[in-house]
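Weekend entry, working from home. Most of the wet-lab plans are on hold until the incubator is repaired, so I used the time to fold the two sequences that have been sitting in the queue since the last round of cloning. Logging both here for the record. First:
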Amino acid sequence: MKVIFWDFDGTLVHSNSLWSGSVYNALKQVCPDAKVEFTEIRKHMAHGFTWHTPNEDYSSITGDKWWDHMNAYFCSCYIALDVPADIAESATKNIRNIIKCKENYTLYPDSISTLKTLKDMGFTNALLSNNYPDLCEVLEKLSIADLFDNIIISANEGYDKPRKEIFESAMNLYPNAEAYYMIGDSINADIIGGNSAGMTTILVHRGYDENADHCVDELEQIIEIMNN
C-alpha cells in the first residue's frame, strides 16, 4: 500500500478570500448597513486561527470547542471594528454555516480525474488538512468525499501542520504502508512538515521550491510521477 495525503484548500480547490468573505457576509446578513469595510475584516483574518500558530497545542479545543474558540475571536474582531455587541454575537453565529457553502469552493479542473486515476492505480488517497471540523460536509457537497479513504482535519486532531503530531496521527492509520506522500501548496505546512515526517513531498500550484521532492503546476502531472 502506498498512501497519498492531500491538502485541501489551495491544492484540490481554490477559494477567494474564504474566511474574510464569510465573516464579512455574516455581518451583512445581520446588519446590511454595517459601516465595516471588507478590507478591515481581511486584516483580522491574517491571524487568530490555530494554523497561524501551529507550535501551540490545541488538543483541548477540538471539534465544537474549536468553533467556540474561533467564534470568540470572530466576535472580538467585530467589536474591535465598532460593531455593537449584540450584532457581533448574532453575526458570529452565521459564520459556521456560511463557510460550508459549496459556492465558496472551486475544484481545480483536474482534481477529480487525478484522484480517481491514482485510486485506480492502487494508491490510497487521504485528506490531511489544516481546517475546520465540518470540512467533511463540504467534501460531500463537492462530490469528492468518496475518493478519500480517510479524512484527517487539524481542528479534530488538536494539532496543525507542520506539527509532527498530526502527521504521526495520519501515518498511524496506515502502519504497514510502503510509502507516504504529502501533496500540497504550502511550503511550510505541507512540504517542510511532510519532509520532517519522512514523506515524499509534492508541491503544487506554486512553481519550484528546493524543499519539495517534486514540483508540479497541474495535478494531473502527479500521475506521471507516481508511474515512475
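Second, folded right after the first finished:
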Amino acid sequence: MGETPKKHRVQFEPVDLEMEVTEDETVLDAAFRQGIMLMHGCREGQCSACKSFLLDGDVEMDRYSTFALPDFESDEGYVLLCKTRAYSDLTVELINFDEEALRNAVPIQTLTATVVELDELTHDIVSLAVRPDAPFEFKPGQYADLTIPGTTEHRSFSMATLPDQSADRVQFIIKKYPGGHFSGLLDGVLQVGHSLQLIGPYGSFTLREKSDRKIVCIGGGAGMAPILSLLRQLAAQESQREIVFYYGARTARDLFHFEELAGLSARLPHFTFVPALSDPSAAEDASVEELAARGQTSELGLITDVVDRREGDLADSDCYLCGPPPMVDAALALLDRRSVPQEQVFYDKFTTSTAS
C-alpha cells in the first residue's frame, strides 16, 4: 500500500477562509474538492487568473508559463494556485477574489455523456452537443473537461446552454485548429452516439447578479459560448440591465448564432449586438449587405478599437471578456486605460493545445 499523502492547512487572506490540502494535489484542486471557488481560468499555468501571494509556507510549483508568472514576480513571492503544491501549512493572500462566488461553488462532477449533435456553424466553428447520463449542474459561463476518446487526455470547453437544459443537452462551441488534439476529431472522427467523459464545472466567469451596472461583453471565436450562456441566463431572468455584446470576427461569414442574438433584443429590451469585422475587405463582403438588410449594422476594425470608439465612460460597467489570449490581453489593456476597476472585469482566455 502507498503512503498516505501528508495534509496541510491553507489560510486565505484577506477573507476568513481555511481549507486542507494534501501534498499530491495543487491548492486549486484542493479548493475544487472542498467546494471553494477560487478565481481561476485555464488551470494550466498559462492565464494568471489564479495568481496569488504566498505570505508564509513551503511550496513547490509545477511547470508553468512565465508569461503568466514572470520570474521577478515569482522571486517576490507570487504563485499560481493551479500549479502550487504545499509542503507545510500556508498563508496565502488572494489578489483576485469574489466573496459572492468564493463559498458558492458547484461540486465537481464526473459523468458519461453521449454525443447527440455535431453541427458546423462556420468553416472552423462547430457546435457539439452531448447528453449526460445525469443532470449536469453548473453556472452559466463555466466550462468543463471533455476526454479525448481512447485516451485519458482531456480538453476544456465552455457550456453555451443553461443548466436547466443539461439533462437532455449540453452545448459546446469549439473552434477547429490544425493539429488540435480534440478539435481535430471534429472532421469525421467523432460521431453522434460516441461516448465522452464530462468533468466539471470549472471557471469563475459567471454573472455577478448583485450588480445593476451596464454589462459590456467582448468575445471572439469560441468565446461566444460562455457569453451566449450568460445572455441566455439574462434573458430567462428578463433582465432590465443595459447590455452590449461586441463579437470579433474576420468577416460577416464568420458570424454564427446570429438569429438568436438578434432575437434576444425582443427578450432583453436594452441589449445591443455589435459584430466587429477585422478584415479590411469585409466592407465589400456581400454578407455585410445581408446583415444590413436584416437591420444589423457591423463595425470595421479590431474589436478593441471598435469598443474604444463606441463606448463612452466604461468605469461604471461590468466587463466580460472571452476569446483567444491576444484578444483578451488587448481588451484588458483597453479597460485598464479606460479606468475600469479590476473587480468589475471578468475574463476567460481560450488557450489551445495542438499535436506535434
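Plan for Monday: verify the second prediction. The helical segments are 27-33, 71-76, 99-102, 224-236, 258-267, 286-293, 303-310, 325-337.
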